[in-house]
Amino acid sequence: QVQLVESGGGLVQPGGSLRLSCAASGFTFRNADMSWYRQAPGKERELVAVITSLGRSTNYADSVKGRFTISRDNPKNTVYLQMNSLKPEDTAVYYCKTIQWGKAYWGQGTQVTVSS
Prior knowledge:
11 strands, 53% strand, 4-stranded antiparallel beta sheet, single chain
């Protein structure tokens, strides 16, 4: 079955960096577009970044452009989100997502807290 497991979250100071990972299994990862979303308390879940199956195209929310980078390592079935110059407003639970067989699959999320 499809499984997505995020890791790498934690507490960082403003201006700091984190690298999130999402380990995927249960589907042909190299054929799948992958996305990162985040959800802050009291807010809707929002799309942060997307990467196509071969990693040839990426897109980002305006709020993270120039600071975040999505990448993938297909032989390792893993997608990453490198987050630099973190701001308090980046605080959220971060989720990775894919769509397989017409259905959305989500990881359990990893907490990112940016605070001094």
